[in-house]
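Dear colleagues,

As part of the handover before I leave the project, I'm documenting each prediction I ran so the next person doesn't have to rerun anything. This entry is a single chain, and its sequence is reproduced below.
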Amino acid sequence: KGQGTGGVTTLLENVDSKEANYGIFRTTELIDKSLTVKFALVDWQPESISLFQKASLATHKGVVEKTFAPFHTSFRITSTTELNDQMVKDRLSELSGKGDRAESKIG
């Protein structure tokens, strides 16, 4: 539906509060002086969608993940307040096993 720069904050500013959305964004991480690129998938399912729609989305999960693959992590959220740049940075640092040695740039 869209593309651009700005990372997770920009992505969340553009989700539709009345329908499910998927998005992927790119981050970079400096680990031991090497720049690495990571991708994160966002599965946006606002509380306003019906139970039928939520059930239907569960059946699409495999296709969606295959379409967006490869990515390093994913987030399923129902509110834009459930995700921010720091949460993404923390998750990616945790996954890379580098903790405070990693410096992330979202966007």
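DSSP finds three helices and four strands in the chain. The helical segments are 7-13, 51-68, 85-96.

All the best with the project,
I.
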